[in-house]
């Protein structure tokens, strides 16, 4: 059983910090900058910002050490003046969302078969004893689609506590709308915990040719109820609406759980 990593910096020292902060100050005006990621060299990039968390670096290291799933190698990670920096290798590849509709069916099938194998490998990871719903370090989680007063939430001792959070703390009451009553009954069922990427989109999977070479952006990953991988994957970004047609090919479809989650979103929102 994999050990629970401890939240903290990786390969952090004063010299590394000085070099990285100096490089960012020098290069951020002339290097490609996508979102929160800045290219330091052709092979090394840094993801940084006040919303970046050390948990993401530890998650990538956890996946690298316990699976064969290709993720960026984390070289250094630290927090400085309320801003977190994750220095990692830059994986050379193309996001599969780019040009997906122009791929042959054979090419698509090869990529989806690999992705299915990776998802299955991740879901076979045994949760640590006593693990509820939480991050890889048994700490708070991040997902901008989950309602609440903070972008970070949890951890929760049980799936039921997580579900109660999704409902804004609402408990069962016979005076509630029948659909909400049924949602709470479904939420109170027993769901196993599984390690979950939380946003398996064509916008964060890199490939060279027909080979997946990297899965990036692990900020939404953690230990969740087993259906969460499927239901979050089905919340496709409008930029890759075609992806909804591919999800059932690499994650086991869970129509009942998807209907449950859509009911939750209808009554309690997903933001």
UniProtKB/TrEMBL annotation:
Cite a single GO MF annotation: protein serine/threonine kinase activity
SUPFAM superfamilies on file: Protein kinase-like (PK-like)
Q: Does the keyword Transferase apply?
A: yes
Where does the record place the Aminoglycoside phosphotransferase domain? Answer: 60-236
Instruction: Give UniProt keywords alphabetically.
Output: Kinase, Serine/threonine-protein kinase, Transferase
Q: Name one Pfam family in it.
A: APH
Q: What top-level branch of life does the organism fall under?
A: Eukaryota
Protein name according to UniProt:
Serine/threonine protein kinase
Taxonomic lineage of the native organism? Eukaryota, Fungi, Dikarya, Ascomycota, Pezizomycotina
């Amino acid at each position: 059983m994999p050990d629970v990593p401890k939240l903290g910096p990786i390969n952090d020292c004063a010299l590394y910090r000085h070099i990285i902060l100096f490089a960012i100050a020098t290069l951020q005006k002339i290097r490609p900058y996508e979102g929160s990621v800045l290219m330091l060299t052709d092979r090394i990039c840094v993801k940084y910002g006040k919303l970046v968390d050390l948990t993401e670096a530890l998650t990538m290291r956890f996946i690298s050490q316990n699976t064969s799933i290709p993720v960026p190698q984390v070289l250094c990670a630290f927090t400085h003046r309320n801003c977190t920096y994750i220095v990692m290798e830059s994986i050379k590849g193309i996001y599969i969302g780019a040009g997906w509709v122009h791929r042959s069916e054979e090419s698509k099938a090869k990529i989806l078969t690999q992705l299915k194998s990776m998802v299955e490998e991740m879901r076979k990871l045994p949760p640590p004893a006593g693990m509820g719903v939480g991050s890889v370090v048994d700490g708070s989680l991040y997902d901008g689609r989950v309602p609440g007063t903070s972008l970070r939430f949890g951890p929760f001792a049980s799936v039921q506590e997580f579900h109660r959070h999704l409902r804004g703390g609402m408990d069962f009451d016979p005076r509630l709308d029948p659909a909400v009553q049924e949602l709470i009954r479904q939420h109170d069922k027993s769901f196993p915990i599984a390690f979950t990427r939380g946003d398996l989109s064509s916008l964060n999977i890199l490939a060279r040719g027909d080979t997946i070479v990297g899965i990036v952006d692990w900020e939404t990953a953690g230990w969740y109820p087993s259906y969460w991988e499927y239901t979050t994957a089905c919340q496709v970004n409008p930029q890759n609406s075609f992806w909804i047609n591919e999800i059932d090919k690499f994650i086991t479809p869970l129509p009942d759980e998807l209907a449950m989650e859509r009911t939750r979103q209808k009554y309690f929102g997903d933001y």
